[in-house]
Amino acid sequence: MLTVALPKGALLKDSISLLQSVGLDFSAFLDSANRQLQIQDPTGKAQALLVRTHDVPVYVEYGQAQLGIAGYDVLREKKPQVAHLIDLGYGRCRMSVAVKASSPYRSAVELPTNSRVASKFVHCAREYFDSIDLPVEIVPLYGSVELGPITGMSEAIVDLVSTGRTLRENGLIEIEVLYESTARLIAHPLSYRLNTDNLSEIIEKIRSKTLATV
Amino acid sequence: MLTVALPKGALLKDSISLLQSVGLDFSAFLDSANRQLQIQDPTGKAQALLVRTHDVPVYVEYGQAQLGIAGYDVLREKKPQVAHLIDLGYGRCRMSVAVKASSPYRSAVELPTNSRVASKFVHCAREYFDSIDLPVEIVPLYGSVELGPITGMSEAIVDLVSTGRTLRENGLIEIEVLYESTARLIAHPLSYRLNTDNLSEIIEKIRSKTLATV
């Protein structure tokens, strides 16, 4: 049976709407009383897994899900062995460098050599600072990265920014954009090539819906 | 000023009670309306940071907090350069290997060679399977590890178990205990040796409270 890995959190609602528009109903995941992590579409054609956004590529890479929806940020950070199929357009945000508004730095290259940069996206941060040839120490954090500059632990952060509210509330400003991110449809490469469970049909339906809204 | 890093989640309530019993009041963190991640004790003697449990050792290692409270599981997984001071006794749980109840395996050594083991604690899992000389593939996940065996992605999981309810609800059983975990008081090594902010006094108070309740 076709299995789709869906991400908990910010991308879930739009992902479920998109799949509904192509005939797959996983709206039970939006019920706040739901505790199940694996549900079937009422027609019995497909099932979905509800997992952390960082885990979506894992389930797809191992072939436990033939399709998955994940942010480009996660794909760029983890570089999983999956087929990147469609830019779905929603979940738009950007990976940015931010510093305390009261700091003198207004671009990343102005940061002092050997600055500390806190991030949940350590590979993205490392790649970016390598690309501008600035040696920095990346401090890996799991959450609330904005505390890095507030407490003085780090000069800067690399983090996802959507509205910018969290930055403003914490007295931080964005000084550099690494890249823009949106939700992406990904597939298990072998399932995609072999067209298991008639994958290509559902992918084409999603593609036409996505083109219609862009 | 003395800064204490406190973990969000399961250990928070007991940690705040413990600090209250030695005269430091950070109960504002328990207010569900609270959005602040950094607050001062009303007496102005100390401040606390509210961070993810995995981030506590980071703030302590970098000296942004002189003291921190973290689970032994996190300390064992991350091996941070911090001073381990006191076993606080609460937050008791165990790091265990679990499999589907319907599987034939009743101990870790019975797992087939090259099994897949899903875990958020990849270093703990790797260390354990190396110690029993069983080659396995560790699949790193961020959450809902129980989906690994349910979906067939992995034969087993290594995860924290406290009541065992999540395992039972998902048809899994514990077949091996790696170690027991409790909350621990940790300190920034240099601050501890130099007795910055009169650290030893507060540590001794915490030690006597902990001994009184054990």
From TrEMBL, chains A, B:
Lacks the C-terminal regulatory region which is replaced by HisZ. It is found in: Cytoplasm. GO terms for biological process: L-histidine biosynthetic process. Belongs to the ATP phosphoribosyltransferase family. Short subfamily. Residues 52-207 form the ATP phosphoribosyltransferase catalytic domain. It comes from Chroogloeocystis siderophila 5.2 s.c.1. It is an enzyme of class 2 (transferase). One of its GO terms (molecular function) is ATP binding. One of its GO terms (cellular component) is cytoplasm. This is ATP phosphoribosyltransferase. Heteromultimer composed of HisG and HisZ subunits. Catalyzes the condensation of ATP and 5-phosphoribose 1-diphosphate to form N'-(5'-phosphoribosyl)-ATP (PR-ATP). Has a crucial role in the pathway because the rate of histidine biosynthesis seems to be controlled primarily by regulation of HisG enzymatic activity. The keyword Glycosyltransferase applies. Pathway: Amino-acid biosynthesis; L-histidine biosynthesis; L-histidine from 5-phospho-alpha-D-ribose 1-diphosphate: step 1/9. Keywords: Amino-acid biosynthesis, ATP-binding, Cytoplasm, Glycosyltransferase, Histidine biosynthesis, Nucleotide-binding, Transferase. It catalyses: 1-(5-phospho-beta-D-ribosyl)-ATP + diphosphate = 5-phospho-alpha-D-ribose 1-diphosphate + ATP. InterPro entries: ATP_PRibTrfase_cat, ATP_PRibTrfase_CS, ATP_PRibTrfase_HisG, ATP_PRibTrfase_HisG_short. Its EC number is 2.4.2.17. The keyword Amino-acid biosynthesis applies.
